[in-house]
Amino acid sequence: MSHLLRGHAPITDEGWARIDEEARDRLTPGLAARRLVDFAGPLGWEHSATNLGRIEPLDVSPLGEVEGHRRRVLALVELRAPFTVGQEELRAGDRGAQDVDFDALDDAAQRMVVAENTAVFHGWPQAGIEGIIPASPHAAVPCGDDIDRYPGFVARAVETLLRDGVAGPYGLALGREEYTRVIETAELGGHLLLDHLREILGGPIVWAPGVQGGVVVSQRGGDFLFECGQDLAVGYAGHDAEAVSLYLEETFSFRVASPEAAVAIVR
Question: Nearest to residue 256, comparing CAs of 155, 150, 135, 145?
């Protein structure tokens, strides 16, 4: 029996398939961090810590003639977002309804997206995660509200990385508001701003809910390391006559190996 306890839920195989499909559809577009950093896993629910390859500089041996040091690891964090699905909605889906009410699942998926992106880009100190932006030694590029000048700001960030010996191609994560403004903007001559930015970067531009402003990151590899234990999945918590209580869950760690490989763009 899986720790997700799906076999105990009053949900048919077809119902689980619909729930999983809805979760994938809602999660995939916003998981920006996974498209810009190195992803390892999933390594399983039992995987609890990431090896850092270092030891604590202290002697833990009870014997004076024997040296003992403790290995350092980064514990994985567990994220969970609860939601409910109505029993009648599940039965309607089994009868072939195409408009099953999954609003609560959609909301939980967005909470998970924001939580994961925020941890990776802005950090989660309580979980031992230093985000990409706080770790960067480079001064953030101020952009104000003039979206038409965004190519210049991105070019400045890329030039900063090149000057520091950080090779490309480069990717760009944009928060909700910045991404919307960029895709709606055409420059003189009708050239889409999004296309211009791609030419400068040589890599992807991703919609990143949870990110404040934007951040340019190198795509050369090995700089930002995301280790996944349990990948995002739906589990069962309980039920009554009216609704089934479910949750989205994942475990992961994140670490910055090369702080100099990113430059933030802030308003």
Answer: 135
Which has the closest alpha carbon to 205: 219, 185, 220? 219
What is each CA distance from 184 to 73, 147, 187, 194, 211, in whole angstroms? Answer: 44, 10, 10, 9, 19
Residue 61's pLDDT is what? 66
Residue with tokens 């909301």: 107
Structural contact between residues 166 and 148, judged by C-beta atoms closer than 8 angstroms: no
**Nearest alpha-carbon partner for 42 in 186, 214, 230:** 230
How buried is 216 (Cβ within 10 angstroms: 0-12 exposed, 13-18 middle, 19+ buried)? buried
CA gap 179, 200 in Å, rounded? 16
Domains (ranges, CATH) in the chain? Answer: 6-266 (3.30.2400.30)
Backbone angles phi, psi at 56, to 5 degrees: -75, 135
Is the CB of residue 70 less than 8 Å from the CB of residue 60? yes
**Mean pLDDT on 128-152:** 91
- Read off the pLDDT of each residue in 97-116 and give the average, rounded to a whole number: 97
Q: What is the pLDDT of residues 11-69, one digit of tens each?
A: 999 999 999 999 999 999 999 999 999 999 999 999 999 999 999 877 666 777 777 88
Q: Which residue has the higher pLDDT, 185 or 151?
A: 151
Alpha helices in the chain (DSSP H): 13-27, 32-36, 87-94, 103-122, 132-135, 150-163, 176-183, 193-201
